[in-house]
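Minimal example, chain plus magnesium ion.
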Amino acid sequence: MPENDPPSSRNPTRQRRPLGNTPVGVITHAAGPVVEAHGLTGALLYHVAWVGRERLIGEIIRLSGEIATIQVYEDTSGVRVGDPVWDTGAPLWVELGPGLLGSIYDGVQRPLPALAEMDPAGVPRAPYVARGVSLPGLDRERKWRFEAALAPGDHVEPGSVLGTVAEGQFFVHRIMVPPTYPAGTLADLTSGEYNIRQVIGHLQPAGGGRLPLRLGQRWPVRQGRPFRHRLDPAVPLVTGQRIIDMLFPIARGGAAIIPGGFGTGKTVTEQALAKWADADVVVYIGCGERGNEMTEVLTEFPQLEDPKHGGPLMERTVLIANTSNMPVAAREASVYTGLTIAEYFRDQGCHVALMADSTSRWGEALREVSGRLEEMPGEEGYPAYLASRLAGFYERAGTVEVLGGQDRSGSVTLIGAVSPPGGDFSEPMTQSSLRLAGTFWALNVNLARRRHFPSIDWITSFTHYQLDGWFAANVDSSWPQLRAQAQKLLQEEHELEEIVQLVGSDALSERERALLVVGRLLREAFLQQSAFGGDAFCPPAKQHAMLHTLLHYHAALEAFVRAGQSLEISLQDSEDMRRRLGRLRELPDETLDADISAINADIDRWKPS
Ligand SMILES: Nc1ncnc2c1ncn2[C@@H]1O[C@H](COP(=O)(O)OP(=O)(O)OP(=O)(O)O)[C@@H](O)[C@H]1O
Ligand SMILES: [Mg+2]
């Protein structure tokens, strides 16, 4: 591992950051999370600096002549002008390797001694971690069983899979040649029990020399990990959420935003996706949310069962928690820490879903730091570079062919919640994110107020991903057609509702009134889906069957209208049928086909031929 490895960490106990031979500067100005220092000769932008006598961790974010401006990721109270500052000579890294899964970190990858440090009311004690201490991201002592997959003499490249470590009961962690290594020949590689820093073998570059191979590697968080090339996003991230998969699906490797006002269901949706989406690994960043909301995540996640295999969900999850009572600048770091961990799993060939709740708190951190830097403010006080920062984040989503020459692909799907003040989507964070995301799940305050959940607005939401082909090939060939029909019906219902509001329902034809009946059925029986209980995950085949049946009923009603039968009579005749349609979600998976066929047969028998 690189030199800058803090020598603090023989074991994961707290240790004070050591003094090195690195240049010492002096603080000349201290204001909240931002300090200025003189005398850090040779320091580079984005080097990590240790600030003050307690050696708080910070990052150099501006260099101007003699003055280095540092944003500090720990509480800076007590830091004074005249205090020392050290340049560590290295950027902010994360440690990557076995042991990541199941971890709970703060924004700079220090493991949070999570639950033990909650007070009796379940509120995390602040600060989580004492100031000025180094906690390694990965346990340095824990031994892992490494099984070599390659043999001496084999050709290897950056990203080549050397072998595997079983992590937890279900995850096979692939150990790769670091992306910074050259290609070469494997000199030696031995299966066995190793900790993340022990040497498992050596690589011989073509030009000579010997490079050590280990289970762990590091990567600077602000730099995307390299890959071979991007692939078109053509496969959905199946979520089991009907309104998402059926109407506004997201591609694996895509990016979605969930903007919504206070209490509209952003967190519940992010968590439902973390639990149910078809991802190998989930990275969940709780960014600047209230401490108690994050506590819910910290207490609930470890108890969640993984629907994939029945084990704990944490076995394929990394949590990053950065609550509103933690230092504001660390929110920025937490986003990049999470991204880098996600990319590391992508490089193993995994499909990773990264949830960030809420990106608005990160935006606020940018605004606060920018304010302290006295930069020229852009819209609503956000820095002018807000849009480019967000672009830098969302661009790290993607399905890629990974390094390693083994034709593997992996993906990082980004799902960012946005909390516009007052639920007003015209504000800069929502607008800038909107341009970057391929999917927009707009949460609607009125729907949430009526307890229509998920409160995703089917009129204003959209997706740019073309996934009909996948659903047609893998679920049912009529998927695209049903989807288009449902969208048209909901759109028309919306327009008719507006007319009804203006002039009453008398103005509507029988056909239009039939459409309103089915529109309502579609909303209540199909679009509504509780994140809690048996309906929380709906497999695509069931989504299709439900929608098909509801639209079949609509066709029957329309046939009666065309045949001249009064709608009222048709509705009376089919009251019981509508009740059954209203409860389609309850049909058990085991008998779904038979039950659905029975209802459709009843509709066929009833409708005019
Ligand atoms: N899919 C859902 N199924 C059932 N209930 C839901 C769903 N989504 C949201 N809710 C309800 O809405 C409440 C608020 O949701 P949530 O906490 O996710 O909102 P939020 O947008 O994250 O709020 P905040 O702005 O405070 O962060 C939940 O406690 C829950 O009762
Ligand atoms: Mg929330």
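Residues 1-14 have pLDDT under 50 and may be disordered. The longest strand covers residues 409-418.
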